[in-house]
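Quick one: structure tokens for this chain, please?
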Amino acid sequence: MRFLCVATLLASLLVCGCSCGKRPGAIEVAVRDPWKYRDYNLVFVSFDALQAAHLGCMDYSRNVTPTIDAVAREAFHFTRTASVASWTVPASMTWFTGVYPSEHRMVNKFAIFNARERKLATLKERAPDLVTLAQLMKSNGYATGGFTGNAGVSGGFGFEQGFDVYFHEKDTFGRFDRSVPEALEWLNTHKNQKFFLFLHGYDVHGQSTPAGGYDYRFVDQQYDGKFLGSPLEQEALREEGLERGRLALRDEDVRFWRAIYDEKIQRADALFRQFLDQFEALGISDKTLFVITSDHGTEFCEHGRLDHGFTLYQELIHVPLIFKIPDRITGNIIADRVSSIDVMPTILDLLDLDIENADRERLRGKSLVPAMKGEPVARDAFSETDYREYTYKRSVITPDGWKLIVTLEKKTRELYDLNTDPKETRDLAAEQPERAAELERKVFAHFQSIGHDLTARRWETGLNPVYPSQAPKK
């Protein structure tokens, strides 16, 4: 249960007494809604490619996230959050627009990619009517600063819209060791005004390696060293998995890749600790909301491949989501199934921002504040990926844990019961065709409701590269 403080309760009673039987000349007392944090700061932190299952607060066996776990113990921790997409560009853009990838249309890096023309996708051209979270914050008087690791959240795609400063590391997959110092320097000059800070790092991404290299702290001492964990090795395995459908890795190789992933997570968590310590020293923590999340997870052969983007299995779309609110320091674990589409409306609700009705009506998600109050939340969570035009997939997870994945180019479907089969090892589509058909209708109806009839086009695979090595020269 959650209790109002005594002062708030007495004030509430006073207001009630004045309004229910007012005496002549009685003074009415205005009481702040205890769930509104107008003019509070916002720090939004993205650990790119962090699989939810690798957090200690999600019962992971290795102690690699002590900092995140400590924050979660004093925060609202949504343990069953599904990302709307399984890779960076579409998933992250949904945080800042409040609509699904099919609507903001930032579903691949290139708007056009063919032998004659190559044109990068931009939010202003793909969805010019959308207003970003940073733009809304700025219009409400906030200083806005974004400090990122480049690549899928680099300026130019539209993430920079509304930010006074938008830093992206020169290295394609920059880490917190660069974005954190830049963010702290900016905070030192803006700590006396309300601000929105977006902090992002690719520390745990497959294409990122720690400064100074690995120390292999979690690698089995008996490992024969077939792999070293380099980005080139990871890239080769990613492409091989896409080409062949499955990697021929030994169990010890999979353990190796997961071990260096954990090393990167632990290093990133330590950098986040440094950020929090220095942030605390600024003396503004009691006026700051924190959101900690990830855009997507990553696969380590749970379904035969390495990396992310190309499926909608749980290892890719189950993400952390933590809201830290200063005056609510008792940890709250919320196991309702929610979506990353809910992040923006929750922020707007908590900060009580003044927003045009048209901008509010565009939002597809719902505020999670009712869930924080202890009210049950029951909603379907939809996800999608058009990753590199290699595949086109759509999925739904129902509140009671049934999940359907539709692969549009193949016209196939997969059905899983996440309650009994959380790792999605047993496809029940053939055994339960009626349930599969019902959920497929739900998927198609949802996308039609947001203006995307999945039956109205041919889903032809092609090439829309994410990395330079995938793009053949003209």
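The radius of gyration is 23 Å.
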